[in-house]
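hiii so my PI (J.) wants the whole complex modelled not just the main chain, which honestly fair. so below is everything: two entries, each one labled with what it is. i double checked the lines twice but i was tired so who knows lol
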Amino acid sequence: MTDQDLKSRLQNWIPKLVLSPSLALTLVFVYGFILFTVYLSFTNSRMLPNTDFVGFANYERLWGLRAWWVAIKNLAVFSSLYIVICIGIGLMLAIFLDQKIRGEGMLRPIYLYPMALSFIVTGTAWKWFLDPGIGLENTMHMWGWESFEFRWIKDRNYAIYTVVLAAVWQTSGFVMAMFLAGLRGIDNEILKAAQIDGASNWNLYRRIVIPLLRPAFLSAFVILSHLAVKSYDLVIALTGGGPGRATELPATFMYSYTFTRNQMGTGAASAVIMLMTIAAIMTPYLYSELKEKR
Amino acid sequence: MSAAAQENAVKTGRVYRVLIYLVLLLFALFYLLPLFVMLTNSVKPLDEITGGNMLALPQKWTIEPWFKAWSTAQIGVEPTGLRPYFINSLLMVVPAVAITTVLGALNGYVLTKWRFRGDTILFGLMLFSCFIPFQIVLIPMAAVLGKLGLAGSIPGLILVHVVYGVGFSTLYYRNYYAAFPTELVRAAMIDGAGFFRIFWRILLPVSGPITVVSVIWLFTNIWNDFLFGSSFGGTSQPVTVALNNLVQSSQGVKEYNVHFAAAIFAALPTLLVYIVAGRYFVRGLMAGSVKG
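here's the output for the full assembly
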């Protein structure tokens, strides 16, 4: 074997060697860990992992728990409202900002900055604002509107909507940016042609612009739904899951069952269900995105 | 974007324009409201907050809550203020961002310019890891960090953030390098330049913009993390966890003005980054969401 051969062989291996640390980390810390958690969900682990296989008992138990049903119902309410309102506000603001608005350069950063903040800061800020004692209700009383009442955050039936409010505040500006980028990518000739044909503004948007924004809708949906399933910090900071369990979500359920109630098997089962929910949304999306690229 | 491209074909009437401006301004107020409340109330004496109006400007300005939040506020059992936790966050975020960015750049380079069979599948595996709910890895991660002797330490948190950030940085660099002409790389190969030489001399000099995006994205994400910090922080908790402990503490009088100031401290680094390089931040968000 000549020197040259050895060198070119080495060259062939270098790229794979460079990639391998990241790949190894991902395989162990992501996929290995997922398998381990799946395995734990079939054992009766309590405070520490153990290997007593119990089949689907944890899953049966999980779906029999009222607290889990509360978390799932809350997730359904929270995620559907969160996604629909964020997309609604985002689309509206993007369309409005796209009307040659003076001061667009000022407004855009104002809409977007919440995304730079931690959910803990956001949750903390909204917690004060919604607190009847020092927040909005108190302010209204000070301004002379004595009968004003706004105590959703203290009310079991309404507390989940305060989580929606804070989450929408945090991410709707980002959704606006996604739609704005989509709008700016639309060929103006199409719009002009439609206008010459006598289409009203309303019809122009409904029949031409909004259908053309399909990719932006899809991305927004995928991003928002995976954020919704992962929501944890915001609930911790805003309501701590309360009042009672009124704002418990799967992410907070998993944490408290695993680490404070020492029901690790059940906690692992709930994590597996969270992963499956996200995988059902993300896998087709990533698959189609990666396929197009080739 | 040129002015011509921005020109909108849609014409709106005068009344509509007024309404549009009104809606846009109302939303601007909505987004600014919490920041305004935090800022004004962080410079008020406590009795003005408890006995007064949250939206009013301070009658008596005081910077005291800021000092208290920074250096003497009771967090957990120690009256340390946010300072040590802020430093923890810095010690964690700087190496984590640096390592993750370097790995991402190299991965992106391999995945676009040194392609091999199955590389898209490997990339897909890394990309999916960006979106997993982290609850699925919490239990084994706690065990592994313990085994490695890294539980409750800053190196442990750095490891965690590198592992779950590298998918994103790889995504950014891969998409960016994909648009870079492969012919240039080929020509350099024929001239006998090796793997690292090509990266160093050809790819790296043009990587400025995407590096800004990647660094901002990782910095924001890692600084703002709470789940990993509270699960594995131990005695090295980051500032988000400290803020939550301070605010949720049920002991003594609730010093709202100190809480407000502490929240601003925790938000300050990412806000600054956002103010200085906001455009890139948006680009990062978009890249992280739109293109695979």
